[in-house]
Amino acid sequence: MRDILIDTDIGDDIDDAYALALALKSPELSLRAVTTVFGNVKIRTKLALKLLKTFGREDIPVAEGIGKPFLEKTFRSQAAWEVPNQAAVLAKDEPLQRPSEKHAVDLIISTVMNARKEVTIVPIGALTNIAAAIIQEPRIVDKANLVVMGGYASKPLSEHNIRCDPEAAKMVFESGIKTIMVGLDVTLRCALTEENVKTLKNRGLATTSLLADMTEAWRKVVGKNQWPILHDPLAVAVCFDPTLVKTQSKLVYVETRGEFTRGFTVASDSENSNVQVCVDVDSKRFIKVFMDRVVT
Q1: Measured between alpha carbons, how far is 291 from 296 in angstroms, rounded to an integer?
Q2: pTM recorded for the entire structure
Q3: The domain spanning residue 241 has which CATH number?
Q4: Which of 11, 16, 29, 83 is the most buried (most CB within 10 A)?
Q5: What residue numbers bound the domain in which 215 lies?
Q6: Are 160 and 253 in contact (CB under 8 A)?
């Protein structure tokens, strides 16, 4: 089994909840901890705790992380603090496990440093917690690896997770830690269909009912004609089946200065490559794996 830690901004897009569900339903993975990042981390932590409770995994620690980016230049500095749409599934005074007494950064460090084998960190939100952990304990660079959902290598656009904290992303990519970047180059090809969502809704398990309710809360915000894209679950899937994607070694630079280019991930060929960038995906096989695991 591969030990993983998921760092998430669960609550806005639905794919974070799906990613956690896929990790919990994958026998090849051992989810050691969950940490939350960016914006209203208190509500995000409660959502992660509720999901773990529903899946019968209250043994997994969840820690509240850093809500603000390293600099205040975030494109959604105010909106990030609003209540995430999926908080609609949280019942008032619902009994949940208490979050870890450790801060997310400390939990990341202790999980990695105390592990007997290499830990895979799966950041599916801003990279603020990860950058802070590397600053506080540089040795994790040699004891962990990353499978990051973020970036866009083939087009000059800034992807959400990188744009939330470009300085943190730049620091992480240039730290020397082994990194696979699962960006929009491949994730945009992994959309669920209306039939997939209906299957999830009609399954009737406690786990699928929660995911269906979270999906409905998300669709009320983005529109009824929008269907989930499996950005974050693909990063989880790469952890247990890297053959789902094709990667290329690239030197990835994160732009932090330009008024219109801030958050761009610029990937180029170089002998000094620092990231394995996903450039192709077997989307049909991946979506089947996702549905087979999450809906059972």
Answers
A1: 8
A2: 0.96
A3: 3.90.245.10
A4: 11
A5: 2-294
A6: no
DSSP 106-133: HHHHHHHHT-SSPEEEEEES-SHHHHHH
Report the mean per-residue pLDDT for the chain.
95
Q: Say how far residue 291 (Cα) sits from the centre of its chain.
A: 18
Radius of gyration of the chain (CA): 18
Cα 51 vs. chain centroid, distance in angstroms? 15
> Do the beta carbons of residue 231 and residue 15 sit within 8 Å?
yes
Are 151 and 159 spatial neighbours (Cβ–Cβ below 8 Å)?
Answer: yes
Of the residues 231, 254, 262, 281, which is catalytic? 231
pLDDT in tens, 76-117: 555 656 789 999 999 988 899 999 999 999 999 999 999 999
Q: State the amino acid at position 176 in one-letter form.
A: G
The answer to whether 103 is a known catalytic residue is no
Query: What would the mean pLDDT of 6-25 be, rounded to a whole number?
Result: 98
Q: Which residues contact 132 (CB under 8 A, 6 or more apart)?
A: 66, 105, 168
Number of structural domains the chain divides into: 1
pLDDT at 193: 97
Give residue-wise pLDDT tens across range 129-173: 999 999 999 999 999 999 999 999 999 999 999 999 999 999 999
Q: Which residues, 6+ apart, have CB-to-CB distance to 67 below 8 Å?
A: 37, 38, 39, 40, 41, 80, 81
**Cα distances (angstroms) measured from residue 222 to each of 13, 46, 70, 185, 260:** 9, 22, 28, 22, 25
